[in-house]
Amino acid sequence: MVSLKAQGDEQMVANLTVKIEGSIASAGKLQLALYSSENDWLKNEMKTLYIDVAQDDNHTFHIEGLSVGTYAIAVIHDKNNNGELDMGMMGPTEKYGFSNNARGMFGPATYSDASFYVEYDEVITIKL
């Protein structure tokens, strides 16, 4: 389990729990990237969290103190700990997922497909 407390103004009111499901090998890290705008989607994450899957089989992230608003999440299982989603000729060679379990047609999911609104404490599940 990994927790992160967001910092900023006084409007922080919500906590977000993100559960990762799917067959996850016991090597590498889960990397969660939180985005707060379409302009930043898959470029400039607001927050990044990691879980060492060999030491934590819970696969749950906790983000505390989020401002009410719209967010989207991208998660990868970085099996070789190189900090990026490895690609092959047919696409990604490591597991990945997005909030809302959104999928792209010939690339990543769009921000609008992956985005969700946080107003109260939320629990979401992302399948890899």
TrEMBL record:
It comes from the Bacteria. InterPro entries: DUF2141. It holds the Pfam family DUF2141. This is DUF2141 domain-containing protein. It comes from Fulvivirga marina.
